[in-house]
Amino acid sequence: MSHFSTDARTLVEAHALAFSRRDEPILRPLDFHLEAGELSFVEGDNGSGKTTLLNILAGLLRPSSGEVRISGYPPGTDGARAETRLLGHQLGLKGDLSARENLRVSVGLYGCRKGMTADLCLTEVGLRGFEDEPVRSLSAGQKKRVALAALNLGNARLWLLDEPFANLDRTGIDLVNIMLDRHLQRGGAALVTTHGAVSFRQEEPRKLRLNL
Amino acid sequence: MTSPSLFSGFLAILQRDLLLAWRRRGDAAMPVLYAMIVAILFPFALGPDHQLLARVSGGIVLVTVLLAMLLALDNLFRSDLEDGVLAQMVLAPQSLSFLMAARILAYWLVTACPLLIAGPILGYMLGLPAQAQPVLFLALVLSSALLALLGSMLAALTAGTRRSGMLLSLMLLPLIVPVVIFAAGAVSAVEQGLPWIAPLAWLSATLALTLVLAPVACATALRITLDA
Question: Is residue B22 part of a domain?
């Protein structure tokens, strides 16, 4: 963890952030900020740049113009990467490995929250008894749950979740909501893309609309 | 809170790759099988001339082993790119070069080690003089490690392009020619009773340099691949 992040409450700061590919605007200039303990939904139609925005914040893509800071660091630098965790459409799981083995890799790469273990996290997402099953034999929803367990195991403060509710059943959606709730209470923040149609349990969260 | 240490990521990737290779043992056996088939076909094509075979055996073994290693190279980053693990590696608060070093080490262990065992056996089969055997083995160790490092660099560059196998082989050719020249030079030198240490020393020096630079180049190439 960096020394600045503990007292700085602002996790994400974006000024006139825009992205275009081959002169075609994908993300119109965007100003927003996200503080610790805050959740924001990113809403927009297909192709409105939701995934692009998350990829920029994670540091996978470079913005065409404008500036972003993740707790004071540019995205993709060491300081920003220690704070950020992206859960994309591709879940980052190896099909030939079991859920437990996948989580072990994740712990090696991202570290582990104090008091958390892989088995505890898998039980929490309702995969008790599936720990040693190869991930390729799990259903789409169960794979998503493994990825959520990996996310929950790490200690990043900023979660960037791309369609976390896709493929999940009712209890799965509740599970994501509970995880988000706890994450915010720990002082984390989350940026969540969605088409809408998801009821968050708490007060109405902030929304970031991306339609061009 | 426990932050990941420098070596935890390295070990996690190494362990993961070895485990994946073990789960797909059949795939790992492919290069060895390929090298054996090619080397076995040579005597049939060249005819049963012992002296001729003994003279060319070092070169045959060297080239078949290096070509066999190419079979697995194209896929080095492909599957990780497709299932999103590569993005996770790039985004992890770790040195990507270090993770890539683990990836290359695992590739060398899984692909080259079985070939290093098969190589001397093939040499013996083709009638390689006994005094050349240890030199051939050394040349194989050095050149396979060099191929793994140079090849992974190019595999990282071409990971994003479709049907990159052809491109990869074309780009690798000029890089691997000097390696083959020095390695084969050492083997033919010992067969003629000449000092053979110099070409191997050159290979070792290049290996030392590549060992430091290739993981860094790999990491940069993958960042570019993911940005595209």
Answer: yes
Cβ–Cβ contacts within 10 Å for residue B38, how many? 17
**Is B184 within a domain?**
yes
pTM: 0.89
Gyration radius of chain A's alpha carbons: 17
A-interface mutation test, from B6, B83, B88, most A Cβ less than 10 A away: B88
Q: How far is A207 from chain B (nearest CA, A)?
A: 25
Whether residue B3 and residue A95 make contact (CB cut-off 8 A), yes or no, is no
Residues of chain B in contact with residue A93, where contact means CB-CB under 8 angstroms, are 83-85
- Chain A to chain B Cβ contacts (< 8 Å): 98
**pLDDT given for residue B108 in this prediction:** 95
Q: How many domains, chain B?
A: 1
Contact A183, A200 (CB under 8 A): no
pLDDT given at position A27? 84
pLDDT in tens, B2-53: 556 778 889 999 999 999 999 988 888 899 999 999 999 999 998 888 889 9
Q: Which domain holds residue B143?
A: 6-227
For B63-111, how does the pLDDT look when each residue is reduced to its tens digit (9 = 90+)?
A: 999 999 988 888 889 888 888 899 999 998 888 999 999 999 999 999 9
Do B87 and A104 make contact, defined as CB atoms within 8 angstroms?
no
CB count within 10 Å of CB B193 equals: 8
B106 within domain boundaries? yes
> Which residues in A lie closer than 8 A to residue B82 (C-beta atoms)?
90
Nearest residue on chain A to B79, judged by CA atoms?
A94
Q: Which of A178, A123, A197, A113 is nearest to A151 (CA)?
A: A113
Is there a domain that residue B1 lies in? no
